[in-house]
Amino acid sequence: MKKTARAHTNIALIKYWGKADAKLRLPLMSSLSMTLDAFYTDTSIEESENMEFYLNDKKQDEVATKRVFKYIDTLQHKFGVSGNLTIHSTNHVPTAAGLASSSSAFAALAGAFTRFYDLNVDNQELSRLARIGSGSASRSIFGGFAIWQKGHDDESSYAYALDEHPNMDLYLLAVELNSHKKKISSTMGMKDAQSSPFFESWLKRNDFELSEMIDAIKNNNFTKLGEIAELNASEMHAINLTAQPGFTYFEPDTIHAIKLVEDLRKRGIECYYTIDAGPNIKILTQLRNIKEIKKIFESEFNNVNIIKASFGPGISYLD
Ligand code: 2P0
């Protein structure tokens, strides 16, 4: 018997950057994301003799296999089920796109697990299970716009759909500037960031920024959405820079790209940036501006790769 689930990646417009509980992956703040159609992971689970993990048809080494099976072990314990499994994951996420595949990976894995063992869980519980694998995965259970409410324990920390089928002219351009493997994992980065003198201010702003973002979405206000997303991302990177010791995910090309987005705006081409735990930027814009933005970025950077994404769906099951 084999069970397969598909989950799409998401981009946080209000970011998760700080944990209250590392083991349960309980966040210190609520976050809000857009699920993306262009990037997804398919994961299948089947019975086998040994525990094996294949990523894009390649058997993975011990380190990668360990994180996956540690998670599977946690879920097996939770539900009182057992057995050796072979897991096949196919990432339709260009690794260089700077989009975390862990959001789609752990969402698809949680979905395949619950189907394989025929567990009766709704999407709220599935979101909690995905969260334990990787925080951002909690949001990838849902399509469109999703909110991960921080909650205060395992039961109350889950994502839900704000709008699964938004009727909004909003696109994301993933700009691949630098394909080097990132040096600081998200898990490490968000831990270190807590030493910033601005960390408390970052947390205090969460409720306000989240409600402003919800307003922007409900009122179909792209300008407001872009302004808040850009500010929120800059705040996250500011607490990294001001951590003790400070660090940054930015590379010289990241700053170059930020300036280009600001220049484009001054010229009336409305776009905003958001940046995750890596050097690449993602541009938020509207349909009429995509062609021009791509043209300008391609002329400014050598060999830049730009991938367009729009709203993606929630989790689905392929067999
Ligand atoms: C987010 N990021 O909200 C934030 C913004 C990156 C920057 O969630 O430690 O892989 O596995 O819970 O979910 C990426 O971190 O972290 C992330 P863990 P995760 O999307």
Automatic annotation (TrEMBL):
InterPro entries: GHMP_kinase_C_sf, Mev_decarb, Mev_diP_decarb, MVD-like_N, Mvd1_C, Ribosomal_Su5_D2-typ_SF, Ribsml_uS5_D2-typ_fold_subgr. Signal peptide: none annotated. GO terms for cellular component: cytosol. The keyword Lipid biosynthesis applies. Pfam families: MDD_C, MVD-like_N. Residues 177-306 form the Mvd1 C-terminal domain. It is an enzyme of class 4 (lyase). Keywords: ATP-binding, Lipid biosynthesis, Lipid metabolism, Lyase, Nucleotide-binding. GO terms for molecular function: ATP binding; diphosphomevalonate decarboxylase activity. GO terms for biological process: isopentenyl diphosphate biosynthetic process, mevalonate pathway. Its EC number is 4.1.1.33. SUPFAM superfamilies: GHMP Kinase, C-terminal domain, Ribosomal protein S5 domain 2-like. Residues 7-159 form the Diphosphomevalonate decarboxylase-like N-terminal domain. Belongs to the diphosphomevalonate decarboxylase family. This is diphosphomevalonate decarboxylase. It comes from Lactobacillus hamsteri DSM 5661 = JCM 6256.
